[in-house]
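Field: COMPLEX_INPUT
Field: COMPONENT_COUNT = two
Field: RESIDUE_TOTAL = 597
Field: MODE = joint
Values follow.
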Amino acid sequence: MEPLDLDIEEGQLELASEPMMLNMGPAHPAMHGTVRIVLELSGETILKADVQIGYLHRGFEKMCERGNWSQIFPYADRLNYVSPMLNNVGFSLAVEKMLGVTVPERCQYYRVVLGELARICDHLICNGAMAMELGAFTPFLYFARAREVIWDIFEEETGARVTHSFGRVGGMAKPPSADFKEMVRAGVPRVLALIGEGEKLLLKNRIFLDRVEGVGRISSADALSLGWTGVCLRSTGIPYDVRKSHPYLVYDRLDFDVPVGTSGDNYDRFMCRSEEIRQSWRIIEQALDQMPDSGPVDLTDPRIMLPPKEEVYSTIEGTIQHFKIVMEGIKVPAGECYSYTEAGNGELGFYLVSDGSGTPYRVRIRPPCFASVQGLKQLITGQMIADVVPTFGSLNMIGGECDH
Amino acid sequence: MSQKVLDLLQAKLGSGVVETHSQFGDDTAVIEPARWREAALFLRDDPRLAMNMFVDLCAVDYLAMNVEPRFEVVCHLRSLQHAHRVRIKARVGAEDGTEAELDSLVPVWRGADWFERETFDMMGIVFRGHPDLRRILMYPEFVGHPLRKDYPADKIQPLVEFREGTQGKLAPFGPDEGMSFGRQTHDYSRGEN
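Field: COMPLEX_OUTPUT
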């Protein structure tokens, strides 16, 4: 037996150095949203990465070609199940653009407030989940508690906590409830307080900061060419927000700032989200002040809207109109249209093609996180394997949306 | 809003622009497929256009409308500096779904990568010069392209074979397999108990 202290040349001590292949996901605790990353590793450094999505593909676009225009709302809910209201509103705006109608002012404010509440939820869960995957479980509980407050408001308004299916072409399913404004005014400050407490646990935590600061960095030119939008693009310093650049609904009447980052790393994405939550509250406050307390919420156009239930049950005209809208669907003029809104992750686009009938010919969704996740490969190549977790978390991949 | 874009495109490409329209406020140019990449490069590099944001790329199957060529590849672009948008389209493909080929836009905008893979996966349009054209949403064993109009919506291609039952096909796993606390939804399992 050779003595242990024998002088061996360094070359003989080297371990076999061919790269190791590692499957991360699709059932990995940090791969929320079911994504699989095939990594080629040299030690702990990632040499090559292949991001594979599609595990949550449900054929959304194919399903949409089978029903009528109004039947898409439940599907739209399930695209981004963290902020379903923004998808609902985005889709109603797209169909309304083709129909050439604008909903009454009260409904526009209502949509803005509900949408911003959903945006707060979206950002909260992204930040919370990202921290949780780094081992900081407690802040996630604070954030989940805060989301609970918002979900209570949604439950009161829509009857559902997560998948509301609340949007309608030409209005909303129901007018705002009597104490909607008080509920929001009382609820959101509680949410902000909880977020403040949760963030206090993170933002002075060396472990958390070390793992997010300077990790997953991307330049603004790269982010642009990859098609990034939303928080991920803004964290690189480009102030592109659909709400500011192409205002829809009543965003042009509301005063808010677009937070941008400087270096486009995980920390910037975290901070942009956290600041956007506060900007959302500013928007909500102003929108609630400006929102009329009475007045119509839905359009009255009989070709689009269902007649009131009393008429359906008491007049033949109402019955026929109801029947035609339910059975044949709303007739959307033939043509094509691309409508885009700012969803939780960025620009959510709907490209609709109609042949003039009550059934959509083609519904294409442009999911914002599809483009972000596309950039993941670049972000993690050359980094350590532990950096995959916060980087992936900060991109906020939502499986339903990314995989259609 | 940005008729200027269409004018510039037409001035540059001439007959390469098949038609233009601005339906619902969206400016659209239909490009000759052979000049697809040339048009894209012009849109990106001309300082008056500067379309540096790649927004979306998808395809529409016009089989049910009896239009020839069958597919329309649709690309949405935006300029960060000028804040204008444009939609460019190219019509490709024979009625049986073949010859659906187009130049890839990945050399122009890197962001086109996954969008073209998705379009290939869903519609079967082949992008020439794409660095890594393989399925993205469906699994590699999948046959066909699900978003084509001639692909039946209720067709299934399970990776795990379905089992033959007395009343048609059964799910791959029965009540006695898998997790014991799962939902017992098959009638025959109740009969046995």
